[in-house]
Amino acid sequence: MRRWPWLLVGLVTACSSSTPLPPITEEGSAADTSVLVTTTAADGTTIAADRADERNDLVDKYIAARDIEDPIVVQAMREVPRHHFVPAELAEQAYRDSALPIGHGQTISQPYIVALMSDALDVGPGDKVLEIGTGSGYQAAVLAAMGCEVFTMEIIPELASGAQRALSNLGYAATVVNADGYFGWEEHAPFDGIIVTAAPDHVPQPLIDQLGEDAALVIPVGPIGAVQTMWRFNRDDTGQIIGQNLGPVLFVPFTRAEE
Ligand SMILES: C[S@@+](CC[C@H](N)C(=O)[O-])C[C@H]1O[C@@H](n2cnc3c(N)ncnc32)[C@H](O)[C@@H]1O
Predict the structure, then answer these.
(1) Catalytic one among 16, 17, 98, 109?
(2) Residue among 85, 104, 106 whose CB has most ligand 1 atoms within 8 A, to mutate
(3) What would the pLDDT profile of 95-111 be if each residue is shown by its tens digit?
(4) How many other CB atoms are found less than 10 A from the CB of residue 161?
(5) Is 29 a catalytic residue?
(6) What is the pLDDT of residues 61-99, one digit of tens each?
(7) Is residue 179 within 8 Å of 155, Cβ to Cβ?
(8) Which domains are delineated in the chain?
């Protein structure tokens, strides 16, 4: 497992679709690409060109050029076709560094945030990772592309089934369940990393309890509709839980099954 440097990251960015972000220059186009994805979308729509040029452009400008250093994360971001995880009408915008709506009031996270959280998780090939908040399945695909064994939980049934379809169609091995992730997934614990992509107002204790040795929990915590704080928690040598503040973020709320 790679060591995460104990640096505080000055982060002011957003996961929801509400914060305007500067558009990137559209230098690539589907017509420029030569590699095609050979799967068929679940809804029967025509599969677009792989758009590797646009993806590489995004990664070069907004991920590799910033503070994301883990080559496994950068490579996964270059590989995973984000346009297959967004609604067809938004596919053209898939390689902007911004969150996009995916229906049901939810969003696919900004690519930079996906890379930042994957980096902070400090996992690699063979590590077992739990994601809470499957959404589109894109973050799960990035973790799978990093070689992780991925378990992911989504509270909205339609999103869980859509993500499962998208992941299967593209050949990413991830186990998706429709459930409230507050309690984690005891059956598969302990995990080498746990990532939460919606913001609760406190850290769910079951997620701390399901962290394996040297594992990290990366989670935004804070009030609904206000700026939250991205935290990375892990155990020190004495078993104490230590939190590292990764900076301010804005995520969709962590909801509960009874709400
Ligand atoms: C910002 S979106 C996640 C983006 C996702 N990781 C992706 O790559 O598309 C947050 C997701 O968390 C889900 N969510 C919120 N509370 C949850 C809970 N208690 N358990 C599981 N999923 C939850 C939401 O339904 C939403 O799909």
Answers:
(1) 109
(2) 106
(3) 999 999 999 999 999 99
(4) 14
(5) no
(6) 999 999 898 999 999 999 999 999 999 999 999 999 999
(7) yes
(8) 99-249 (3.40.50.150)
